[in-house]
Write a structure and sequence with these properties.
The structure holds 2 protein chains of 2 kinds. By secondary structure, chain A is mainly beta. Chain A contains no helices and 11 strands. Classes of the chains: A mainly beta, B mainly beta.
Chain lengths: 108, 122
């Protein structure tokens, strides 16, 4: 199975800050990577797919980059509604689709 | 309205069985691959199983292979997960999730249900 490792696991930041979350795959996955946001008690919400393509309706402050094994999610200017947990997910290797362990983003 | 609505979660004893259902509406259900993704309390996300829209090909995580069966009824816009030989580690919220693209599965999930809670305990 392809393992997905996110870092950091926890980040504390302020409104207006720029935040970068990284995701590393245990082997190359081309650009078959998605990012999700999950607020407490809610289902995940797709932000980015194919590593860098923004899902419709997602604010432009969210962006993704990377290919192969190393990927990043960047939030350019944090808003109050962005404080949540973020997961990466690889979609390269069926039947083993895997998620990262999550990065919790909290208000400083 | 475009939505997914899961049902069937319950408290079940170890070794027991349960069938989850997911009712889809507002999109061309038969065109999209569908998946079940679970989340144990306070933990991360785990993909459990997927089924293609076109030919019904099924896929399973190793953790559930041989115990869980995914199926779909395109005439009713319904997705199912039959869970047998349940274990304590199967305790989780189970989400039904829709593939972003029609035709072959791309396994990016753009629509999720609210989830249904399965508790496996004696």
């Amino acid at each position: 199975d392809i393992q997905m490792t996110q870092s950091p696991s926890f980040v504390s930041a302020s409104i207006g800050d720029k935040v970068t979350i990284t995701c590393r795959a245990s082997q190359g996955i081309s650009n078959y990577l998605a990012w999700y946001q999950q607020r407490p008690g809610k289902a995940p919400n797709l932000l980015i797919y194919a590593a860098s393509t923004s899902q419709s309706g997602v604010p432009s402050r969210f962006s993704g980059s990377g290919s192969g094994t190393d990927f990043t999610l960047t939030i350019s200017s944090l808003q109050p509604e962005d404080f949540a947990t973020y997961f990466c997910q690889q979609a390269n290797s069926l039947p083993s689709i895997t998620f990262g362990q999550g990065t919790r983003l909290e208000i400083k | 309205e475009v939505q997914l609505l899961e049902s069937g979660g319950d408290l079940v004893q170890p070794g027991g069985s349960l069938r989850l259902s997911c009712a889809a509406s507002g999109f061309s259900f038969s065109s999209h691959a569908m998946s079940w993704v679970r989340q144990a309390p306070g933990k991360g996300l785990e993909w459990v199983s997927g089924i293609s829209g076109s030919d019904g090909t099924t896929y399973y995580a190793d953790s559930v292979k041989g115990r869980f069966t995914i199926s779909r009824d395109n005439s009713k816009n319904m997705l199912y997960l039959q869970m047998n030989s349940l274990r304590a580690e199967d305790t989780a919220v189970y989400y039904c999730a829709k593939d972003l693209f029609a035709a072959r599965g791309h396994w990016y999930f753009d629509l999720w249900g609210r989830g249904t809670l399965v508790i496996v305990s004696s």
